[in-house]
Amino acid sequence: MEYDVIIIGSGPAGYVAGIRAGQVGLKTAVIEKKDVGGMCLNWGCIPSKAIIESAKYYERLSDAADFGIDGVDMQKVSFNWNNAKKRALRIAQKLTGGVEYLLKKNGVDLIKGEARITSPNSVTVENRSIDAENIIIATGSYPTPLGFEVPKDRLLELEYLYEEEDLPESVAVVGYAGVAVEMAQFFQMLGKKVTLVSPTKTLLPLADQYLNDYIYNRLKKDKVDIIFGDQIEGYEDGKLKVQGKEIEAEKVLNASMRGAVLPPMDIDLQLESGFIQTDDYLKTNHGNIYAVGDVNGKSYLAHAGSAQGLFVINKIKGVKGEMNLHQYPLNIYTNPEMAQIGLTEQELQSENIEYKVSEFPLSANGKALIEGYKDGSIRMLSEKKYGEVLGVQIIAPHATDMIAEASAFMQIESTIYDVAKSIHAHPTVSEIFMEAGFDAVDKAIHK
Fold this sequence. Notes:
Blueprint: E1 3-8, H1 12-23, E2 28-32, H2 38-42, H3 45-60, H4 81-105, E3 109-112, E4 116-119, E5 122-125, E6 128-137, E7 141-143, E8 155-157, E9 170-175, H5 178-189, E10 193-198, H6 209-221, E11 225-228, E12 232-236, E13 239-242, E14 245-248, E15 251-255, E16 258-260, E17 271-272, E18 275-276, E19 289-291, H7 302-316, E20 330-332, E21 337-342, H8 345-350, E22 355-361, H9 366-370, E23 377-383, E24 389-396, H10 399-411, H11 416-421, H12 431-441
Parallel strand pairs: 1-2, 1-6, 2-3, 6-19, 8-15, 9-10, 9-15, 10-11
Antiparallel strand pairs: 4-5, 5-6, 7-16, 12-13, 13-14, 17-18, 20-21, 21-24, 22-23, 23-24
Helix pairs in contact: 1-7, 3-4, 3-5
């Protein structure tokens, strides 16, 4: 065989698998038809979070006087979209360049072009046939079409958002889940008129109801109009017609759920709801072909895709392991950020597990108040008899970083007693972990 492993796609699932494969001595090729880094690095995770950070920075300027900084006149301050997107794309380019370097450093061949799977052991690309013992499909996902006509000059697709010369003064964000909520807040923080049109009342389908309730109330507080329902009649003359209502929307942003991007193939791969069906080891119905990341429909999270890529390479090398999607954090880059890991309260209830809820608010945390934040909390779900931590939800400015601590102690099946005993430096926002632990054991110290 020409290669031990061929990986189709170079997003977080594909390029991480490629780097790891090179590190463990597998002769590896990564095939990419467009941009190294995939959706995440080029127009998804990285640049989108960069422009959201710019919007947060802009919004915080209104608090400058309270922090003792005079001379900031918000009437004279404006958001420079051109510079914000340049910064976002500059960061993205730095990271994609780093990925190309790491692939090369680890002896991985990067082949540009569209791969076609011609047999369980062969792929063609740019009129070249390549054989491999194993094939890993990591082609990702893409937002599905809206389902109604929008003129091209009025439609915002996330991939092409950074090509926009100016941002619209009014926008309808159509969709749900993390991206829809994040983008609705992005435009709201810039003072735009925003309407979020969601087909479901559950804005965050994978998140605990506690987080869903919080973000709904936060959006309403921030004057984001929310319309629930999928009866969209169409778009005409700058108005989106939904359930008999006309919504002012200079542009319509497609934030619909994503569907799998499947490579061309001459073999029969089993699909489920449009995604490649895999077993617990991420194998397809062909024993030497694997599917990792968004394309298998198990998760839409970049870090889950990376973990799946590592898992498959380890399996090919004979290293045993297991996949547990509940141990992967769910990060939502709202304002403030939200994150969770483990089981939700609704899952615990459906499985008839007796549990205890312990909470602690940011409004009682010194570091949060120092930084000017008081909106947020930590919520810990623990097993009632032995105290094992089963789930954690955080609402805080750095929740997406802080959730890593919960991930660490849940990996070793820590209890609320272990969390309560963990010493946290003062003042830090992470002290809320200790407080939530004490709240579960007995009483929080500062509550």
